[in-house]
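Hi D.,

Good news: the full-assembly prediction came through. Inputs first.
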Amino acid sequence: MMMKKMPEKRGPKKLRRYVRRREAMEAASRFRLAEDGTRYVVRFTTEQRIQHWILLLSFTTLGITGLAQTFYNTPLGNFILLACGGIDSARQIHHVAAFIFGVEALYHFAISIYEMFVYRRISRIWPDWSDFTGLIDMLKLNLGLSRAHPRFDRFNFEEKAEYWALIWGTIVMGATGLIQGFPLQVTSVLPGWIIPVAHAFHRWEAILAVLAILTWHLYHTLIKTRNFSIFNGLMSMAQMEEEHPLELAYLEQAALALKSSTWPALIEIPLGEEAEEAAAVAPEETGRRAEEGSVAGAADLPAPAPSTENAGPAAQEVSSLAETAESPLPANDEADASAGEESPSPLTDEGPATETVPEGEA
Amino acid sequence: MKLHTLCLFIVVSALAALGALGGARAHPVGAEGVGSANAPTATPSANPHTDGNCLACHSQPLTVKYADGNTDIISFDPQQAVHNNFACTVCHQAQATYPHEDSGNNGNCAVCHWQVAGNATAPSEMVFVSTDQDKRAMVLDMNNSCQKCHAEEFTSTAHSAHAQIMAEGDRYAPVCVDCHGSHNIAQLNGSRSAIAKICSKCHMAEYTEYLSSVHGAALYDESNPDVPTCADCHGTHNVTGPSDPNFRSDSIALCGKCHGNQAMMSKYGISTDVFTTYLDDFHGRTVNFFRETGEINVPTATCYDCHGVHNIRKPDDPLSTVYPTNLQATCSKCHADASIRFPQAWLNHYEPTWDRTPALFVVNQGYLIFVPTVIGGFVFYIALDARRRAAGWLKKRHAERPAAESHDDEEDA
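Then the structure:
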């Protein structure tokens, strides 16, 4: 899901954007049809879900055994330490969990670097201007200043805040934890006051991290909604429409673009409330590669051929799935509506919604 | 009260018993005729064979021969002692009769007198035979009589380090009389310096160190009432030491008893932070947890690992183990290869302040603001969000109940 977006010309209601064939196939491959007819979108891959499990277990272990050491003289802390088999055992458990957490963090870093520089996929988790507008819009909504719910893309600012807080916390906790773990080696090159400072960082940051998880993360995933996509990988279409409508719209349009024969294909993503009625798709046949041509991978280009050529059998199956299941794909009858021209007309009273889309990205 | 009754009973009963036997003792050495005919009929001051007159013989040096063949000269030298008004037989119960019961030869005069010298006219010229193996056996035997009156103190020694080495076979491990004396038992109350001197009889090396320490010097130079003497740390009758597995972990409470006492420490300008900061730190937390859970053989540093044991000195004393230039060596006792910077990791028992540890101070103060701000922001946002959702939910529910009319304003569902 690249973010190569065309600069919006004037119509604020649709976002025109080129997708490469690989992206279109990936988008199509993310739709699932359950046996009971429920339609889902794959939100997290198995590998990402495993990462989250490792993170969940090691973080919980670290938090419990760590805070128990900090608050060792409280009944609960004392109980936990005893349950661990003593303060030394608790420390050993803490260190093992820290090692697992560290390996997972390094893996995540490596895979992110790989995705970014080898696979040339810009993660959608990077903050952008839409996060700021999203926050403002949510505050306006929650304060009663507006009635329009902002429409979020793959990750909303709440999720991005969670992620980057985790990254920050991992760096701080990892560094200060290692400093405390090897005080002799550290002080052989650095001044000694590093150690208590690292200890203070470690303690405070742990409190902050655990409180952030308990408040921010659990509220947004378990209380205000029940989002289990990180565990089963799936999010229902209804929930997608509610929580990540822009991503859903993109996926639908990008999947439809598979019918195109020219790549990259221009798709048009409905941004506002009219997304439901104006499910117009424009797999525009213009083969313009425009200014992103240099970035696009060469593998995307020989697209006109059947999809089996540049994608493995899995991708072929997925793309066929996307077409046979057809579930996510709106009718393509009005697909010939060309991009951008008819968009200004159905401007309804839901004006604010259009402001929330990430159109104004830097 | 009870004690006097007991003594009186013993004395009276002993008198009665001896009186009954008086006739038989008129000629104690006669019949057997061992040695010679000139038995010690002439006693110095009184007939030794009547009771209640112990000093008649025992004020003179008497030669006693133990079972192992060694001889010893014993005599009772009357001194000012707390037991002065007790009869000898209160303690020497086995000797309440004469010949003494523990001689093991009741009625057999020859056993004592077999080697009375030819012209011996005084007990000092006789050699008395004891059934005890040696003098120490006699002392240990006699020591048991202390428990008749001092049962509590006596039993409290049972688990002491001294009793332990006794049980391990060291017969010279101290018992009551070794510290308190036997005939010259004195009150130690109020004389704390005397306690250390008593201990020094065996623990001279520790005593010497102690004299040079901040505690010992204050005790002997200033008669300071607050500094600990041996017994304050090691206990009195239930003497413990490093051989006690709990001694290490309990030692922090020992030091904390005084050094956590605000009233006492303020007299000397010592901060009680030393105790609380220790407990806040890695070492203290570990040791304290071990202490509370009863784990033994704590490997983590306690107070005395850094400050020394008997040689504790002021931190600004160049001989102190925690004097800045000595710190690296002190840390290296546990942290081998500790660099010169390693001791800087320790805050010297000071709470972090801007003056001493600016970086740590800033971190703590920063987080003190940062954490509530961030979490407060989170909670604020969540509260707003939850309020709106709850309101929407209630509105929807309210709207559905009276009429099946549904609203169209549930953008947040």
